[in-house]
Amino acid sequence: MSYRPRLIRSIPFWILLVGSLASVAFGALLVVDKIAIMNTTITDQTATGIEVYGGQAWVTLGAALVGAGLVGLVATLFLAVAASFVPAPAVEVVEPIDWDDAADEVVVDEPLVPASSTPADAEASTVSDADADELAKR
User: Fold this and answer.
1) DSSP 8-class letter at 45
2) Are 23 and 65 spatial neighbours (Cβ–Cβ below 8 Å)?
3) Average pLDDT along the chain, 138 residues, taken 10 residues at a time
4) pTM to 2 decimals?
5) Chain center to CA of 8
6) Ramachandran area for residue 94 (φ above 0: left; ψ -120 to 50: alpha; else beta)
7) Residue 82's closest CA among 11, 27, 13?
8) Are 28 and 60 in contact (CB under 8 A)?
9) pLDDT number for residue 1
10) So where are the chain's domains?
11) Which residues have C-beta within 8 Å of that of residue 26, sequence separation ≥ 6?
């Protein structure tokens, strides 16, 4: 049995992988879409300043997202490789279990203190005559 968690069960690993893939996909979508719009409008000679100069800013943002996603994918790959080099700790058996001795013993639960014959409520409800007189005076 391994004491260290496996990388496949690591939630931060999967968040890094999925986030990196999403960043690459969204960045590539931005770049391809804005380049296509700029190419079409410039070729048709219907381009406005918003499409050309605004499109360049969107392409720059998309390229940054693609770059960040690729860095995340490289980090994910590095973590997977590094996790494969970490050896699992050896399990050391301290003492073997002798199953024959455990099966022969019969455990009997006995109370440590004998129960009293009077119930606890009866003992608590007995009030001396002096206490009763004192309570009556109040």
Assistant:
1) T
2) yes
3) 68 94 98 95 92 93 98 95 81 73 63 62 60 70
4) 0.59
5) 12
6) alpha
7) 13
8) no
9) 47
10) 7-85
11) 62, 65
Measured N-to-C along each axis, helices 11-44 and 55-85 cross at an angle, to the nearest 10 degrees, of: 150
Angle at 107 between CA 103 and CA 113, to 5 degrees: 170
Measure Cα distances from 29 to 35, 36, 72 in Å: 10, 11, 18
The pLDDT of residue 92 is 78
Residue type, 29: L
CB atoms within 10 A of CB 121: 7
The DSSP output letter for 8 is: G
Token readout for 69 is 């996603």
Query: Any idea which residue has 């409520």 for tokens?
Result: 121
Distances (CA, A) of 68 to 11, 55, 65, 72: 20, 20, 5, 6
Predicted pLDDT at 10: 85
CB neighbour list of residue 108: distance below 8 Å, 6 or more residues apart: none
DSSP state letters, 110-134: --SSPPPSS-HHHHHH---HHHHHH
